[in-house]
Every structure is written in C-alpha cells, then in structure tokens.
Amino acid sequence: MPNVCANAAVIQGSRRSPAWLALSLVAALALSACGSVPATVPPSAEPPITAAPSATAETASTLGDALRGAIDIDDIVADLGRLPAIADSNAGTRAVGTSGYEASVTFVADELRRVGFDVELQPVSI
Q1: Can you spell out the DSSP letters for 45-97?
Q2: What is the value of pTM for the model shown?
Q3: What is the C-alpha to C-alpha distance for residues 108 and 111, in angstroms, rounded to an integer?
C-alpha cells in the first residue's frame, strides 16, 4: 500500500506579496516528503491554466523580476531547516500518523496563514 499524506490542504488567499511563492514552495516540499505515491494522477476535469493571450515576454519578465526580488533564499533554507528539526523533536520522523507529521502540517499551514492564505486542512482516508 502506498504511503500517502493523511491531510490535504486547500489553500486560497490574496497574493498580498510575492512571498507566497516561496512559502508555497516550502509547503510543496514539506508535503511531498510525507510519502510517495507511485500511481498516476487522474486527468483533471478542468482545462489547464494557460497564459492570457495578452501576456507578453515583457510582462513575464517583469513578474519574474518581482518574484526574484521578493524571495529570500536564506528564508527558504531556514524554513526547510525546520523540517528536520521537527523530525528530530518527534522520534526522528515526520511519517504519516506520527506527531512529527502533525507538527509538519501545522508548521506549513501556519506559515501560509502568516502571509495571508486561507488554509483548510481536510482529513483524507487512506
């Protein structure tokens, strides 16, 4: 049986600052470390998100510059460093069903809330 996370996060929010990208990256890395699922993901019923026809290379470059300026690599590294510390404080693990997993979920959700996202954790049956 594949090892999967026991919670799914529904993340919505205003993008008050581009720092949301860095925190989203940390969240994705943290939650992806919960376990692996070798199964394929079913196709979505919604169409893929694509760039608006009016988007230009200049617009993309401006957005990229803004995001680069808003992301602090030291902050990302510090946040990622919290994950092994959480495991160390919880019998060396963050595996699903353990206190380390719950502490990891709480950490990531709290960080996302701190920058303005609405986060709702939903239990998932395994």
Answers
A1: SSPPP---TT--HHHHHHHHHHHHHH--HHHHHHHHHHHHHHHHTTTT---TT
A2: 0.53
A3: 5
Whole-angstrom distance, CA of residue 39 vs CA of residue 72: 34
Coil, helix or strand at residue 8: strand
Q: Using one digit for the tens of pLDDT, what is the confidence trace for 111-120?
A: 999 988 999 9
Q: Which residues 6+ apart lie within 8 Å of 43 measured at CB?
A: none
8 Å CB contact between 26 and 108: yes
pLDDT tens-digit profile of 25-43? Answer: 556 555 555 544 444 445 5
Secondary structure element (H or E) that encloses residue 65, with its range? helix 57-70
Phi and psi angles of residue 113, each rounded to the nearest 5 degrees, phi first? -65, -40
Separation of alpha carbons 108 and 110, rounded Å: 5
Cα–Cα distance for residue pair 12/51, rounded to 1 Å: 20
**Residue type, position 101, single letter:** Y
Residue 9, phi then psi, degrees to nearest 5: -100, 135
